[in-house]
C-alpha cells in the first residue's frame, strides 16, 4: 500500500520553530520493487470499452498508477499501469476476458515499479503545416533527440485550416532547443514554436498585436495615399521601412506629408475599406473568453484603428494621431511617433497596467519596427513577416490565418469551435 509522510513542525522552544516549506502533503512513496502490470489495449473504439475493463479490474481491487487513452480515426489505444495486489492471476484473466469480449487486442506485461519521474526542462513544441509532412515531423523529432530531450506525449491541436501537433517534451534546454528548431523551421518549411510547459502554459496573458498587415490585411497609410494619388510612392517607402532599411519615424513623417490637403472625410472611407485578416475575430474572441487582455500597437493612425478595436473588444490601443486643421489633413503627426521603441514601451506599459510580468506577454508583428516588442515579450511571434523578423522572433507563422496564434498557446481547434457553438457565435 502507498504511505504518506507528512512534514511535522519541530518545537525546540518558544523562539525556535521549524516549519515545513509547504503545507501540501509529501509525494506518495511507491516501492520501486513492487510488482506492476502494464496493460495495453487496441481496437475499434465504441462506448463502454473503458467501463468494461475497469469493472473487471475492480472485482480484484487493483490500484491504478497511470492511465492514458487516445482515439485516432476510430481506433482506440489504451494503456494502464496497475498495482495488481495479491490476486494478480485473477486480475490478468478478468482483464483479458473483458478486453477480448469488447473486441480488443490485450497485451499485459509484468514488471516492477512506477513510471520513472519526468525530467525537468519541460517544453511544449508546436509544429504546424499546410499540409504537415512526415519529413517535417521527422526533422523536429531528430532535433529534440539530438538535444538529449524526450517526447513524452503528442496531441493534435488542429486539422483545419492547418494541421498542428503539440509535442510535450522533457529534458530540454529551452533556449537551445528554440534556437535550433528555428533553423529547422526554415529548412523544412514548417512553422515551429517552443514554449515553457507546465504552469507557464496556463493562466492570464497579455497579447499585443501590430495592426497593419497583422490584425488587418492592409497598410492604412497606403489606403490614405491612394486618395492623394501617391500610392506607389508611399508603398515603396513603407516596404523599405518594414525591411529595416529606413528609420521608421523619418519614413512615417515623409509618407504623412504626402497626405497634406486631404479632407478629413477620407478617414471614414479608409475605415470602411479596411479588411480584417482571416481569423482575427476568432483570435480576439477566444482570447477574451480565456480572460486574456488584448492590445494593439501601431505605427498607423488612431482615427482608423480605434473603431476597429472597439468593434473587436480590444482593451488597449496605442497608435499615431494625424493633425487636422479646418477639416483637412495637414500632413503632420501629433506628438511622438509610435515607432520601434514606442511599441516595446507600450507592451511594457500595458503589462504593468494589467499586473502581468513580461513572461506572460505575447507579441505579434510582421515588420522591423516590431522587433523590440517581439524581443520584450515572453513569446514573440512573426506573422507572415519579413525575413529579418522571422530570424529574430521566437516563433514564425507563415499561414495566412491569425487565429493560428491560438495553437501556439496550446489551444485546440476543437476547443475553439466548441466555445463558438456554445455561444452560437460565427467563425471568422
From TrEMBL:
<keyword id="KW-0460">Magnesium</keyword>
<dbReference type="InterPro" id="IPR004469">
    <property type="entry name" value="PSP"/>
</dbReference>
<keyword id="KW-0718">Serine biosynthesis</keyword>
<dbReference type="InterPro" id="IPR023214">
    <property type="entry name" value="HAD_sf"/>
</dbReference>
<comment type="similarity">
    <text>Belongs to the HAD-like hydrolase superfamily. SerB family.</text>
</comment>
<dbReference type="Pfam" id="PF12710">
    <property type="entry name" value="HAD"/>
</dbReference>
<dbReference type="InterPro" id="IPR036412">
    <property type="entry name" value="HAD-like_sf"/>
</dbReference>
<keyword id="KW-0378">Hydrolase</keyword>
<dbReference type="InterPro" id="IPR049148">
    <property type="entry name" value="PSP_ACT"/>
</dbReference>
<feature type="domain" description="Phosphoserine phosphatase ACT">
    <location>
        <begin position="124"/>
        <end position="194"/>
    </location>
</feature>
<dbReference type="Pfam" id="PF21086">
    <property type="entry name" value="ACT_PSP_2"/>
</dbReference>
<dbReference type="InterPro" id="IPR050582">
    <property type="entry name" value="HAD-like_SerB"/>
</dbReference>
<dbReference type="Pfam" id="PF13740">
    <property type="entry name" value="ACT_6"/>
</dbReference>
<keyword id="KW-0028">Amino-acid biosynthesis</keyword>
<protein>
    <recommendedName>
        <fullName>phosphoserine phosphatase</fullName>
        <ecNumber>3.1.3.3</ecNumber>
    </recommendedName>
</protein>
<keyword id="KW-0479">Metal-binding</keyword>
<comment type="pathway">
    <text>Amino-acid biosynthesis; L-serine biosynthesis; L-serine from 3-phospho-D-glycerate: step 3/3.</text>
</comment>
